[in-house]
Amino acid sequence: MKGIIVFVIIILLLMVSIVIGSQNTQMITVNYLIAKAELRVSTFMVITIGLGFLLGFLIMLLRFLGLKMQNKLLQRRLKKLSKEAS
Q1: Is residue 15 part of a domain?
Q2: pTM above 0.85, yes or no
């Protein structure tokens, strides 16, 4: 239930940021390391928010998988120690 509430809040924040960003029609110049682009503020906001969300999700997923592997290793060690104690 908690996960669903968090997911809904994240979706609502993304929608609000897109609505606010769509009101900004000014053009800006974005200088990358190897390129230069002219984008509307709204487009730039959507790209950066999307990349931030994706990066955060990937970091969270990697951390989750690492903790899951660590949990399995600790469970194996616990089983081994409980067999030795018996």
Answers
A1: no
A2: no
Which residue type occupies 9? I
Cα–Cα distance, 50 to 56 (Å, whole number): 10
Give me the half-sphere count of Cα atoms (radius 13 Å) on the Cβ side of residue 47: 8
Whole-number percent of the chain with pLDDT over 90 = 37
Q: How many domains does the chain have?
A: 1
Average pLDDT value over all residues in the chain: 88
Nearest CA among 46, 37, 44 for reference residue 16: 46
- Rounded to whole angstroms, the Cα distance separating 52 from 49 reads 5
CA angle 74, 77, 83 (to 5 degrees): 140
| Domain assignment of residue 51, yes or no | yes
Q: Is residue 1 domain-resident?
A: no
49 assigned to some structural domain:
yes
What confidence tens digit (pLDDT) does each residue in 52-73 have? 989 999 999 999 999 999 999 9
